[in-house]
Every structure is written in C-alpha cells, then in structure tokens.
Design brief:
single chain; alpha+beta; two-stranded antiparallel ribbon; 3 helices; 9 strands; disordered C terminus
C-alpha cells in the first residue's frame, strides 16, 4: 500500500497541506496539488489488480513504477496542475494523461524502459522523447497545462 503523508500548518483561514509553490514577488507558499491523495489511492488500487485484470494477461502495477510516478508528480506538479488520468498498461506500467482544451499530454511509466512522453499543444507541434533526457521541457509542459478550472488563453 502507498501511504501519502502530509503535514499541516494552521493559518487564519484553516489548515493547508504542505508542498512547495512559488508565487509572484518571490513569496513561498506551502501547498500540494489537492488531488494527490486521490491519486495515491488510485495507485493503491492499481497495485492490487489481480493477474489477467484486462482479460489479456495484464499484471498489477509494478511498485517501483508506482514510486517513480509519485516522486515525479511531487517534483513537477504545482497546486494549479490539473489531475492526470492514470491508465494502467498490461505490462505493469501506467500512462499519465491530460487531455483538455486542445492539449494532449501523455507520460508512460514502464518498469522495463525509461519513462517517455508525448505532447501536442495549442500550437499543434508534436513533442516526444524520454523524460530523463528532457526534464526541463517536461516540467515546463506540465506547468503549461491549463490550471484547474481555468481555460487557456488563445490568440486569434
């Protein structure tokens, strides 16, 4: 089972979960994406899938792969980042997916190969490759996803 531990800080308006987010004027706020706990629960579910869960020999999520996903998201996702869909693969991996407002972004975590990504943005340019070789680009693409409950700004 994956456990996600957070600390809380009391503020005038209540408590907040700890994570790190920089805001304008170099103010540091401690927050985490609000969906991180639900994501770890989904990962727990994927870790417990029975053999042949897909009727085609699929296996449960690999534990090391699960840890890689959580570490990756904690390192790159911001409070405003929309929640990714978690799509299990039959070979013990998971694909993270964001499909919204004309942006398609997929990151495949496979226990047998390096993590890879595929992105098509509003500019219709396809970007793909290994995550490790493109860390700054991938982090930038995640930051460029439309914020939760916001629409992207397009120019005409």
């Amino acid at each position: 089972m994956v456990e996600f531990m957070t600390s809380t800080v009391r503020e005038q308006a209540g408590s907040v979960q700890l994570g790190l987010r920089l805001t304008p004027h170099s103010t540091i706020e401690l927050t985490s994406p609000p969906w991180i706990r639900a994501l770890t629960q989904r990962i727990d579910y994927l870790l417990a899938l029975p053999d042949n869960w897909d009727g085609e020999g699929g296996q449960a999520l690999d534990f090391e792969c699960a840890m890689e996903i959580i570490n990756f998201l904690l390192a790159t996702a911001q409070h405003e980042t929309p929640e990714p869909q978690l799509i299990p693969t039959s070979n013990r991996g998971v694909q993270l997916e964001w499909h919204q407002d004309g942006i398609d972004f997929e990151i495949l975590f496979d226990p047998n190969s390096p993590a890879t990504f595929f992105h098509v943005g509003l500019d219709n340019i396809e970007r793909e490759g290994e995550v490790a070789e493109n860390e700054h680009l991938v982090a930038s693409l995640i930051r460029g996803l439309p914020a939760r409950n916001e629409r992207p700004h397009t120019t005409r």
